[in-house]
Amino acid sequence: MHALILGSSGDIGTGIAKQLAEKGWSLYLHYNNNQERISELITELHEKYPKQEFIPVKFDMVNDNVLVLTRQIFTLDAIIFAQGNTYYKLLVDIEEEEIDSLWKIHIKLPILILKELQDKLAESKSGRVVFIGSIYGKVGSAMEVVYSTVKGAMSSFADAYAKEVASLGISVNVVAPGAVDTKMNQEFSSEDLESIREEIPANRLAKPDEIADLVGYLVDMKSNYLTGQTIYFAGGWLL
Ligand SMILES: NC(=O)c1ccc[n+]([C@@H]2O[C@H](COP(=O)([O-])OP(=O)(O)OC[C@H]3O[C@@H](n4cnc5c(N)ncnc54)[C@H](OP(=O)(O)O)[C@@H]3O)[C@@H](O)[C@H]2O)c1
């Protein structure tokens, strides 16, 4: 079994990679700038699971052609889209290239990647696609209006695409976290993070490993009957 994890060099992507490797998957580990993190991850995974394959894949989702990525992928059973970025600013202050980057990274390139790789995913008759969305795709957030927009579009895309590929055995779902303890939230002060924690009924941020557990379940499922869903994983926050 082979999975492609977009954003393996991120905190959530690394958690997913470790979880899937433990379950016996071979992995295409995507990164953009953080080659060092992927090299360390591959060394760790090779030592623990010497019979599996761990293949680094560099790809810039803003500037590269989709074929740069898809030409490096041979056999494939699952794709997990765990890459992402955000800009924390008012809509009136966001630059056009920042809007383009959010659109390309979260929506346009995932769609182009699926167009190219769908035939490979369909071969096993149990292909799996999982997106890491966001609770903001449902409730929306001030200061992250365009980010909320693309995360909402991710759920709409999964809803529609799931219907198109169910007969091929492919399931398509979104895991939509609330606040997760990762470097994406590093720009917030500890006081800001503390006030977010106080708003969350579960009284803490999620851990990347918890997101990885749910993704592990979705890609391992024997049937494709759970499909087209957005699963909110937010400790009761904003729901
Ligand atoms: N953290 C949270 O609280 C939270 C909450 C809800 C949803 N999410 C979502 O979860 C996903 C992962 O977030 P995270 O917290 O793990 O973020 P992270 O640690 O900042 O990782 C971001 C990942 O995206 C990749 N990336 C960024 N720009 C890219 C580009 N131009 N081309 C290709 N890849 C690019 C990064 O690659 P390099 O580092 O190699 O450049 C990295 O692998 C995102 O979709 C995010 O929106 C996060």
TrEMBL record:
Keyword Protein biosynthesis: yes
Pfam families: adh_short_C2
Keywords from the named record: Elongation factor, Protein biosynthesis
Domain of life: Bacteria
MF (Gene Ontology): translation elongation factor activity
UniProt keyword Transmembrane helix, yes or no: no
InterPro entries in the cross-refs: NAD(P)-bd_dom_sf, SDR, SDR_fam
Protein family per UniProt: Belongs to the short-chain dehydrogenases/reductases (SDR) family.
Listed name of the protein: Elongation factor P 5-aminopentanone reductase
Organism whose genome encodes this protein: Companilactobacillus baiquanensis
Gene: ymfI
